[in-house]
Amino acid sequence: MKSSEGGKALEIARKAVNIWVLRGEKYIPVNYPRSFDEKAGVFTTIHSYPGLELRGCIGYPEPFMPLIRSLINSAIHATRDPRFSELTREELGKVVVEVSILTRPERIRAKSPGDYPKLIEVGKHGLIVRKWQLSGLLLPQVATEHNMDARAFLEHTCMKAYLPTDAWRDPATSVFRFESHIFSEKKPPRKLEVE
Predict the structure, then answer these.
(1) CA 45 to chain centre
(2) Given CA atoms 27, 32, 38, 43 in this order, what sign does their dihedral have?
(3) What's the pTM value of the predicted model, to 2 decimals?
(4) Could you tell me where the DSSP H helices lie in the chain?
(5) Bond before 188 cis per omega within 30 degrees
């Protein structure tokens, strides 16, 4: 993805957050790159500023709807992440928004589960772990932010799926990797655009 498109995706996500929190309305952009009509997975993350504590993170790992729709929906839902209280209008100028646009997840094919860590590049790959109806996902930046190696990353992704940390070793568990293009605000905008 081009950096100009990433900047536009970030701008759209921020406006979607602002308009939802201030007006309770869904942002409908008119001008956006035509490539945003292609299906893509995306996550919108909201961090407090300047401490960068997680404030909300919701998204769609699979490319099952156009990027423009998944981008707006993930931004709105990130303001209502069930792990936190809803984002308030007072917080809008005290948070930064980050958008991660995902490649299509690919199942990691290994001779044995013990080989998974060798097939994961920390900082490049995000992970999805699935077993039965349980699924957990961690974005690539999580591993680097928390100084995880590939094995720890696998373990934490299992925990995200509410599975034992060693579930990735079970042949019944599927492990997928993906990459993401990440675009982040460096600091909150001075003016909260809602047009």
Answers:
(1) 6
(2) negative
(3) 0.84
(4) 3-23, 67-78, 140-145, 150-160
(5) no
pLDDT tops 80 at residue 155: yes
Report DSSP letters for 142-168, one per residue: HHHHTT--HHHHHHHHHHHTTS-TTGG
Residues 27 and 76: their CA atoms lie apart, in Å, by: 9
Q: What is the pLDDT of residues 43-81, one digit of tens each?
A: 999 999 999 999 999 999 889 899 999 999 999 999 999
Select from 102, 98, 68 the least CA-distant residue to 181.
Answer: 102
Domain spanning 3-103+180-184 has what CATH number? 3.30.700.20
pLDDT band at 195 (very low <50, low <70, confident <90, very high): low
**All CATH 3.30.1490.150 domain ranges in the chain, comma separated:** 106-178
Q: Which fold has domain 106-178?
A: Dna Ligase; domain 1 (3.30.1490)
Residues 6+ apart with CB under 8 A from 192: 18, 22, 92, 93
